[in-house]
Amino acid sequence: MTDTVPSGQAEACVQDRARNDEPAASFGPHPAGAVADPPRRFSPARHYALELRQDMAWHKQGIVLASSIVVGLAICAVILMAAGISGRDLFNEFVVETLGNAESIRTVLIQAAPLVMIGLAAAMAFRVRFWNLGLEGQMVWGAIAATAVVLGDVGSSGARLWLMGAAALAGGALWAVLPLVLRMRLGISEIISTLMLNYVAGNFLLNLVYGQWKDPKDSFPHSRVFLVTERLPDLWNGCSSAILLAALFALAAWWFLQRSRAGVYMRFVSINARAAHALGVPVRNVVAGAVLLSGALAGFAGFIVVAGQEARLTQDFYAGYGFSGILIAFLARNNPIAASVVAHLVAALFVTGRSLQVLYQIPFSMVQLIQAILVITVAASDFFIRYRLSPVGKTA
């Protein structure tokens, strides 16, 4: 037995179906005999594809990088203003007091010398895609080696400073050997090994300054004060010769990377290590040489701090330099001359941060936050330098 539909409901269904089959009503009157407008066609949405740029002019890269730094500084200014510092006070501290005061400028120059060295150290390793995060550990061992020359009375007083510098170069380079071997022989990531070795070096330093090398006069955790012949001399008006040394190292690094055969090999390895190996470039030797040079430069940065600023070995002289070196190399895109400029800007940021700590009770972590924000904005700018968005498909 089949179900039957009442006649009223069947008629309503027919009318609804007929209503749905009718063309959509057009807006506006139509003249007699005119054909109704066809249904409106909507164009598809525009689609974009991410393309790798073949090249970007250097001045355009500079504009993008400068814009990212400005954006980062603007974000930092907003954060500091939210912390209770007025915009006028920020301008006075960053511009007027830091750049318009002779004493502050001298402090910036002194602070910039080890930053230049640590930035060069990071740039050398990053050039061959060896991510050396152990800059602080290599810096510590450079300072330890230089102090060992002092406490051991090695050499004559006239040659003492030269021996300290050579020992610092050797100490930093030797501390970079272990992560280099771990990567080449066992394939262990240098990011982890260099980072962990920082803690080993730091704890060994504490063992020395709390133990055998503790100053017997005051029993504080630092070595004895260096003699005048064991300190870097001043050039003028209290400015240490470390500034001149850092400038000479930066020029030498620029010549090495731009004019020497090893520098050309390093560029090949940075672009494509496998292709460089296929062309006959000794990739392993190039990487090893760059890493050892990176460690040596970091060790010399430790020598500059203990012989040019502290005049003794202290327990935390290296704090913050490792991250700053990575920041400098990243902002400078591993260019030695640009690293020198960026190092001075970071030094100015350090000096201003200390003033903010004293005058406005801003914690040092706020200064580190500013550095982190600059890293993020510059990393974002790298996207616009390397890639572009191009439309694909046709639009109606």
From TrEMBL:
Q: Where are the transmembrane segments?
A: 63-85, 105-126, 138-155, 161-182, 194-213, 235-257, 286-306, 318-334, 366-385
Q: Does the keyword Cell membrane apply?
A: yes
- Report the locations given in the UniProt record: Cell membrane
Work out whether the entry's keyword set contains Glycosyltransferase.
Answer: no
| Alphabetic keyword roster | Cell membrane, Membrane, Transmembrane, Transmembrane helix
Q: Name one Pfam family in it.
A: BPD_transp_2
The UniProt entry, under CDD domains, shows: TM_PBP1_transp_TpRbsC_like
Note the topology in the membrane: Multi-pass membrane protein
User: Which InterPro entries does this one have?
Assistant: ABC_transp_permease
Q: What is this protein called?
A: ABC transporter permease
| Organism expressing this protein natively | Paraburkholderia bengalensis
